[in-house]
Design a protein that fits this description.
The chain is of the alpha/beta class and 329 residues long. The chain is 47% helix and 16% strand. The radius of gyration is 30 Å and the shape is elongated.
């Protein structure tokens, strides 16, 4: 029992320490948000005007954060990459062009390893955006725009390990990337282009990417005899057949369920118009495939005819089976 009480006490101490860390960093983030001013906008203007790439750099923990920020920029429509300051001094500065913009992260702003990169940027008039907490540092003085971090306390109880500071840098990098994304009007379709793999890529698939094209569709008019319609329906193998009017617009659908409901000795001699379900459920080709899956599940159907948004012209057929094959559950 004493051991259990001791473990409970230790656990509570751990939770209190975790709360202290998170609360401290959250407060620092709020302070950062309140400190943003026209300098942030000016930095965005510079990034918008950059014809080349955005190059991130930093040493130590700042370097790790710079790596992540570069990745976020690249995946949201702003070409970017990371250069290590030491490697830059041994040839990698050749990767920096006159059309690029540098974002350099350094808490002190006086990290020795950054000096060659800063000197190179000044020599060739390559603009610098600094993220630091020292306004009078070498980095700040060399930068076109300095994004100053507000006063903070590191979450490390010794005040040594970069914790709160790296959280602030990371959040500021996210703020730059996301605000820039919004300025550029970066779309979900473009986001999908940079994230073709994994679950994220599948989530962003559009109906147009999975649907069966118009030329493969089983289609008849409402005057077609069911005997002929069933042959077409069987040959195509989709378990349904679309019904068009004289203008080529979708006006109905015949499914396996319709056949069961109209089963009789005269079914084959009936016209499609008498058997079909009018005004069938459809979806636009520009819709997300995940949206289509949810729609089919809610309506207990396995096929959706696809229309072109704006014209409502029939362009394809989406099958639940094809969506499931892509892992869209």
């Amino acid at each position: 029992m004493q051991q259990a009480n001791a473990n409970s006490l230790v656990s509570q101490d751990d939770l209190e320490e975790a709360y202290r860390v998170l609360h401290l960093e959250a407060e620092a983030l709020l302070t950062l948000a309140r400190s943003l001013d026209s300098t942030f906008k000016n930095a965005l203007d510079l990034l918008m005007q950059t014809e080349g790439r955005v190059i991130l750099s930093g040493i130590g923990k700042s370097g790790h954060i710079a790596h992540k920020i570069a990745s976020t920029f690249s995946s949201t429509g702003t070409p970017a990459f990371f250069i290590h300051p030491s490697e830059a001094s041994h040839g990698d500065l050749g990767m920096v062009t006159l059309k690029d913009t540098l974002i350099i992260l350094s808490l002190s702003g006086g990290t020795v390893e950054l000096s060659d990169m800063i000197a190179y940027a000044k020599r060739f008039a390559i603009p610098i955006i600094a993220i630091t907490c020292k306004a009078e540092s070498l980095l700040s003085k060399a930068a076109h725009h300095t994004l100053l971090l507000p006063s903070f306390t590191e979450a490390c109880p010794m005040g040594l390990a970069p914790t709160t500071s790296t959280t602030l840098m990371l959040a500021l990098g996210d703020a730059l990337a996301v605000t820039l994304l919004k300025r550029k009007g970066f779309s979900e379709r473009e986001f999908k282009t940079f994230h073709p793999g994994g679950r994220l890529g599948k989530k962003l698939l559009h109906v147009s990417e999975l649907m069966r094209p118009y030329k493969e569709l089983p289609l008849v008019s409402k005057e077609t005899l069911m005997s002929e319609a069933l042959v077409i329906m069987t040959e195509k193998g989709f378990g349904c057949i679309g019904v068009l009017n004289d203008c080529g617009q979708l006006i109905g659908v015949v499914t396996d369920g319709d056949l069961r409901r109209h089963m009789s000795s005269t079914l084959l001699s009936e016209k499609v118009g008498k058997v079909m379900t009018a005004s069938p459920k459809t979806i636009f080709s520009s819709s997300f495939a995940t949206e289509a899956v949810g729609f089919m599940n809610r309506n207990s159907i396995t096929n959706l005819f696809v229309l072109e948004e704006g014209t409502n012209q029939l362009v394809g057929l989406l099958r639940l089976h094809d969506c499931l094959r892509e892992g869209l559950l």
